[in-house]
Specification:
Layout: H1 3-13, H2 18-30, E1 32-36, E2 45-46, E3 50-53, E4 56-62, H3 65-72, E5 78-82, H4 83-90, E6 95-99, E7 108-110, H5 112-122, E8 133-137, H6 144-155, E9 163-171, E10 176-183, H7 190-202, E11 211-216, H8 221-229, E12 231-234, E13 256-257
Parallel strand pairs: 2-13, 4-6, 10-11
Antiparallel strand pairs: 1-4, 1-5, 3-4, 6-7, 8-9, 9-10, 9-12
Helix pairs in contact: 1-2, 4-5, 6-7
Length: 258
């Protein structure tokens, strides 16, 4: 089973569990999806294959290339892109997702309303603020679901930072909370890492408040202190670069819907 299959099974097993539903949609956003096209892409524009069910339009998407091939049974044009990019492309178009139809246990129809909701949920980005730390202590009081969500989210942020530490924090104004400090983050990756931390909270399914994010160098004395008292997350090394073989596979050059 794929990660998406497992998340779908957990959601189906607990239909009243909002946390399970949120985790499924988080996996959908983070998974690379392969969309069946109505014709070959041209000039970085794509035309999805659409069909109607009960007066609603859907595009066929699969979380594995072989699943798409199994469903179609022939050579067919397709585009591969992250789920978050796909739903953003479809937002407001009145098009839902027909996921893994007939080829996987996660087969389901995701209506256009759910596509638009996911885009809006992902759009809740971080805000910048200045605050002076007065004390950094071992983390406490955060639910295990938040820790697990952070671990899962940072595992896919390969190569963006060396590591991260979670700790409890006290601020000059008397405020208390938690801070996630990224060590040796790659220049320009700050927004993506802050968004990843924010999404971990958003999709954890609980009222967990906020976690502040900061960026430090390994040579910073605070890094040595965090290594002693903080909860460490190791970000994986980046995988060997993948050479795109179909439209949309290059995240730096997403296709346009037509």
């Amino acid at each position: 089973m794929t990660d998406l299959d497992q998340a779908h099974a957990a959601m189906e097993a607990a239909p009243d569990d909002d946390a399970a539903r949120l985790r499924f949609y988080e996996r959908l956003a983070d998974t690379e999806l392969f969309m069946l096209l109505g014709e070959e892409a041209a000039d970085e524009q794509i035309t999805p294959e659409l069909f109607e069910i009960e007066d609603q339009r859907f595009t066929l998407v699969f979380d594995r290339e072989e699943r798409l091939s199994q469903f179609v049974g022939r050579v067919a044009p397709y585009a591969g892109l992250p789920g978050r990019a796909l739903v953003q492309m479809l937002q407001g178009q009145g098009i839902g997702l027909a996921l893994n139809l007939e080829v996987a246990p996660s087969a389901m129809l995701i209506p256009a309303e759910a596509v638009d909701w996911l885009v809006q949920t992902l759009a809740h980005g971080p805000t910048e603020a200045e605050a002076r730390l007065t004390e950094v202590l071992a983390p406490k009081g955060l639910p295990e679901t938040v820790i697990t969500a952070l671990d899962r989210k940072l595992a896919i942020a390969a190569g963006l930072a060396r590591s991260a530490y979670l700790a409890a924090a006290t601020y000059e104004d008397g405020g208390r909370g938690h801070v996630l400090a990224f060590v040796d983050a790659v220049d320009g990756s700050e927004k993506a890492l802050a968004s990843a931390a924010g999404e971990a909270l958003t999709f954890s399914g609980i009222e967990a408040g906020a976690i502040d994010v900061m960026f430090i160098k390994a040579s910073d004395p605070l890094a040595a202190h965090l290594a002693k008292i903080g909860l460490r997350f190791d970000l994986p090394e980046p995988a060997t670069p993948h050479i795109p073989g179909a439209p949309g596979m290059d995240p730096e050059s997403p296709p346009k819907l037509r």
